[in-house]
Design a protein that fits this description.
- By secondary structure, the protein is α+β, with helices and mostly antiparallel strands.
- The chain contains two helices and eleven strands, in the order ββββββαβββββα.
- The protein is elongated and about 115 Å long.
- The chain starts with a strand and ends in a 20-residue tail after the last helix.
- 14% of the residues are buried.
- The chain crosses the membrane at residues 132-150.
- Keywords: Membrane, Transmembrane, Transmembrane helix.
Length: 174
């Protein structure tokens, strides 16, 4: 966990230092409560002061993030802060757990103005039966229903050893 910035930019004789500050460095959640947790809040800092909402709106589209495991994040702007909301990777069962590394990059509005931050979040796993029990039960019930339907369709209509005889009779009218 740490804040790092690449460089300062000299603009009109002033040194501009852009950095990113993580507001909740001890963020963690369990996998079943992932989408109900508070967002990860990151605040851009210019020369030791928080960036204004208007400045963040100007550079919001340049923000990029990378995640090293299977967890999705949705990004929103909240005033002068960036919020990252964790989301499932398709379903809870396909989402990674443990320490998840994130890398966030942001370009400023001046050339060569750049900041980045690397940090970890913790997602705790559930016990096997609590996590996999419901989908396994549904799969088992679907299989039992399919077997029942196949047996009803395939069920023999006549007992073993029975036979069918057909008598042909001709009726003449006349």
């Amino acid at each position: 966990m740490g804040v790092s910035f690449s460089n300062g930019v000299i603009y009109l004789g002033f040194l501009i230092i852009l950095s990113l500050e993580l507001e909740n460095p001890d963020w963690e959640s369990t996998i079943d409560q992932l989408e109900n947790e508070d967002a990860i809040r990151i605040t851009p800092i210019i020369n030791g002061e928080e960036i204004s909402e208007e400045e963040l709106t100007e550079v919001y589209d340049s923000i990029q993030w990378k995640v090293d495991k299977n967890v999705n994040f949705r990004m929103e702007q909240d005033g002068n802060s960036i919020l990252l909301f964790p989301e499932y990777h398709h379903f809870m069962w396909f989402t990674s757990t443990g320490e998840i590394g994130l890398h966030l990059e942001m370009e400023g509005k001046y050339p060569n103005e750049f900041a980045e931050i690397d940090f970890q979040v913790m997602i705790h796993d559930l016990p096997f039966w609590k996590k996999w029990g419901p989908p396994l039960l549904i799969i088992l019930l679907v299989l039992l229903a399919l077997i029942y339907i196949i047996e009803v369709i395939k069920n023999p209509r006549f007992k073993k050893g029975s036979y069918i005889s057909v008598d042909k009779r001709m009726i003449q009218s006349g």
